[in-house]
From TrEMBL:
Pathway: Cofactor biosynthesis; molybdopterin biosynthesis. Transmembrane segments: none annotated. Catalyzes the insertion of molybdate into adenylated molybdopterin with the concomitant release of AMP. This is Molybdopterin molybdenumtransferase. Its EC number is 2.10.1.1. It comes from Methylocella tundrae. It is an enzyme of class 2 (transferase). PROSITE patterns: MOCF_BIOSYNTHESIS_2.
Amino acid sequence: MAQLSKDSFAADDRLMTVDEAVAAIFARMPCIEDVEPVSLIEAEGRVLAQDLIAPRDLPGFDNSAVDGFAVCFDDLAPAVETVLDLGGRAAAGHALAITDCRTAAGFAGKAVRIFTGAAMPEGMDTVFMQEDCRRISDGRVSLPPGLSRGANRRLRGEDISVGETALRAGRRLRPEDLGLAAALGFDRLGVRRRLKVAIFSTGDEIVSPGEPLKPSAVYDANRFLLQGLLRRQGVSVTDLGVLADDTAEIRAAIRAAAREHDLVLTSGGVSMGEEDHVKAAICDEGALVFWRLAIKPGRPVAMGVIEGVPFVGLPGNPVAVFIAFAFIARPLIAALSGAEFEPERRFPVKSGFAYKKKAGRREYVRVVVLTDSTGALVAEKYGVEGAAVLTSLTRTHGLVELPEDVVKVAPGDVINFIDYDLIR
Ligand SMILES: Nc1nc2c(c(=O)[nH]1)N[C@H]1C(S)=C(S)[C@@H](COP(=O)(O)OP(=O)(O)OC[C@H]3O[C@@H](n4cnc5c(N)ncnc54)[C@H](O)[C@@H]3O)O[C@H]1N2
Ligand code: MOO
């Protein structure tokens, strides 16, 4: 794997903004090169390694979008109903069956009974839906006026034409992408190998669920939160458990993890106290590339390079883990995996709350989104604020993003909402 140098990022005294950190990650982070072929069904969530070029037109032939009657538009009377003889039958997957021998030379002046997906008979350009037509018993059909030329016909190549780029390299493949690839005839795709990510929690007070809880200990929420978040990113996760607040132990564990993985993530131990050993371990074992960003929650997040492998020390508070993961670790994973990364869409909503904040940092407020009596979407802040409050994540819909320059929000102000589904 390509390795990062110790001086990959330049740090200065001012707190870096989230945008600066992400831009630096994308500018400097080498992505994994290895590509593996996988079956289409295994490709969901994986990162496409090369552009996928359409080897054929889609659809491959002009065909009917409805069950009904195909005609040549020029055979229709402009303003009144038209009665035509039926000359054939076109069913999907079958050759056109000519039912009227007299028309074997062509269908001029005839209609053809046609079904959805059947190829358009040559020379025909328009299809009536069967429920708009009247069958006349002697093999004729009455067609109403008013349809436009080309109605209910799907043109060859209207979805995608041969030679066009169907999916770009770097696409994290979604179910609909697999549908498109399959429709173009691909049964395997070249994807980047899964990123190998190691995680561990730190802290003398942290106990794995299932174990007895000593006084003043807490159960490890972060490893489980993180594993879920990581799985959704399509990476392979190694759970290294909980490490005590011991710099030597943490240093050794991080070094060993870096040798076997593409990325190491920890939680806890990155703030100011003398018990915060993770930051110290990164400085000793490798190089700190940033520590503390202009973001709340999540400010103490640390990033480093150990043995050429990126390392992110997420803060201990679970909400800080969630947010620093969404806005720092997730873009980093995209960069390392060679995946495209676009800032997730923000939706304007009305604020239902008043809020004050410091200039210069970006804040994320956990909110429920409701509809008011005028039909407008209103964001209501969750009642309990702290970054340790897990129910503030489980009982809300998403985050309101308050940019660096904002210092206060009043009820009724337009603010930007990000649904959790877009960031995990
Ligand atoms: N003097 C200062 N104190 C703190 C600052 C600061 O700037 N100056 N920053 C605060 C902020 S903001 C955060 S966030 C936390 C980050 O602290 P650490 O990353 O050093 O994390 P810990 O001190 O180890 O733990 C913080 C908190 O989270 C709990 N925790 C830790 N790991 C887990 C886990 N796996 N599952 C559940 N809960 C966990 C831990 O028990 C603590 O309560 O620092 C503030 N302090
Ligand atoms: O930045 Mo801390 O993450 O608010 O609790």
